# Entry
Amino acid sequence: MRKVLIIIKREYLVRVRTRAFMIGTIISPVLMLALITLPIFFATRGGGDRRVTVLDQTGDPDMFAAIKRSLEARGEGDDELNRRDPGVGRTNYTLTQRVIASGEDLHAVELQYQQQAAQDPNLTYLVLRPGSAEPLEVEYFAKNTSDFSIGSLERAINDAVSTLRLKRAGLNTAQIAAYTKRIEMKRNKITSSGVEEGGRADFVVAFIMLFFIYMTVLIYGLAVMRGVIEEKQSRIVEVLVSSVRPTQMMLGKVIGIGMVALTQVGVWALSALLLTTFGVSVFASRGLTMPNLPISLLIYFVVYFVLGYFLFSTLYALVGSTVSSEEEAQQAQIPVTILLVVPMMIFNMIMANPTSNASIALSMIPFFAPTLMMMRIAVVNPPLWQILLSMLIMVASILGCVWVAARIYRVGILMYGKRPSIAELGRWLRYS
Amino acid sequence: MNVIELNHVTKRFDQFVAVKDLSFEVRQGTIFGLLGPNGAGKTTSIRMIVNIFAPDEGDVLVMSKHVSPELQSRIGYLPEERGLYKKMKINDQLVFFANLKGVNSADAARRVDEWLSRLELSDWKHKKPGDLSKGMQQKVQFIASVIHEPDVMILDEPFSGLDPVSVSLLKNVILDLKQRGKTIIFSTHQMEQVEQMCDDICLINHGTQVLIGGLKEVKRRYGKNTVILDYEGPDSFLGEDLVKHHNRFPNYSEILLNDGADAQEVLKRALAAGARVNRFELVEPSLNEIFIESVTGKASSPNGGVRQ
# Structure
């Protein structure tokens, strides 16, 4: 055991001290953050001045003024709902009215504005006309229609129109405000431990966790494999085996590199925590709520990450011990990597129907459990027995894999030359 | 006292018998030469002594005990194929290897300093192996095998790739360790080194023992059947009837005589053929010659020393 600790210490320090590790640990959360926030930032930003010509065919003298007022009120509005509409604050809509007289040809006028809009993205136009089914039809024409703030424009028009109609029905301003106050539906998820708030960000959380487990297990599993190959190729094993049992070497390496992985994930988790505490305001100001991570989910994440890492890294160690060079390893590691990749290809299926028998069965397979069960936990909170069973299956598989890998490893690390066949590997298992 | 004992040891890998019924003993405080051609089973034998493999049959005893992980820390092993971690400083590697053998870090640090200065490597303490020449790396590997002050040392080709200065430095270190009562198993293909350093030898081929005993005794068994002849002129005078094997070196010839052949006859024929003889000496065969003969089976045994 003491020897295993010495090896763990070496494996850990040698990796943590590298510049690559420090950069990877610090830079990647920053990059990750940028990757997540920048698109949101740009998407919600909008910006610029839109000069909107309102081609008004309604013949209603108050309509245009109501819309204009509603839009102007939006940006600096002090009621709660209005503040949630950040887009409009960035994009400045200036409305001008162009009344279409009853005899005038709307299409001819439209064509003229269409040409203008094609030239300049800031020149847009809006058509208000009585529809055949609806009393009012509204159409917006612009070069860029993906701006988030257009939603705000739409809401402004809606508000204006309904307020105008209610006023004409005889209600006063105070009444209108009280009756049209929007109601927000809270989403609550029913779980085994009761009812939890939130749930709309489940998909994002599930996917991020799935992806994180996949990436880290892959990166660090391959690091274990490369470490084994390095020792074998440089013939350090020859020196080591006279001091340590091969099984101790293997365990020391797997645990040591695993702790490097945990360190890195820990730093990332910490920055995620900082992000959720200090960064939330940034998201909220853009109309997005940060997913609220329940602590139980984080614990499951760590457990499944550790289990998945152990399962795969022992297999990668096994592969490393049977090859003589990294080039050979490229091929030899494919079967193991496929086991890791399969869940990434079928996770959509599981996500669509996380409680089906097929999903439950797939999430029990030890090689898929770290990703698929983790995802199901994030999405549907499966019964505890399923979670425990999958963990039990994983622990049993890990013990089995360690046993097989250790027996092959102790022979493999001292074998050079031709890659062994499956039959030869079977014989290695039986060596005394 | 025998520090290492192998009793009828056999080791198989699938159908292949790497070591077959091998027995030998290594006395305390001696240098024991374990010899044999490539693939003879030397490395497998050594790996059984350092507890990397377990024998299929027979016993391997170190200090009268079956080898075990605990005994490993009393053995120092310098394998023929050896390496260092590329990304670790020399000091850190040596401390790591010492720790694995049960030396605490403080002792290890002190011993690393001592050994580095003894092998003239102090300036390289904080360098990585890539900055060292191959010879320097070899010396570092040697230190790794002795840093825990083992009672038994197994050195497989310790001098390969070293310049003559380093060889003599290392030789002195090894002889000094012997003086201090350490037991050394020495494996090499350099027969001159064996002649210089070993007390006892064991020659194995195809996993079986071919020749064993004290170095002097082994050579004596062959008797003085070798003529060293330094001459100028043609060598056609050496007839098939007299000579079993003839090694021509630039400055002299080593002639192994057939059994019962008279050395004087060689001299007579040489003179008769008109060669100028500068030196004529009847000696025991060199270990090199014994090795080649034993392994290729060209020679019959003079007195039971060679088993086929």
About this structure: The longest strand of chain A covers residues 48-56. Strands of chain A lie at 48-56, 91-99, 123-129, 137-141, 188-191, 194-197. The mean pLDDT of chain A is 82.
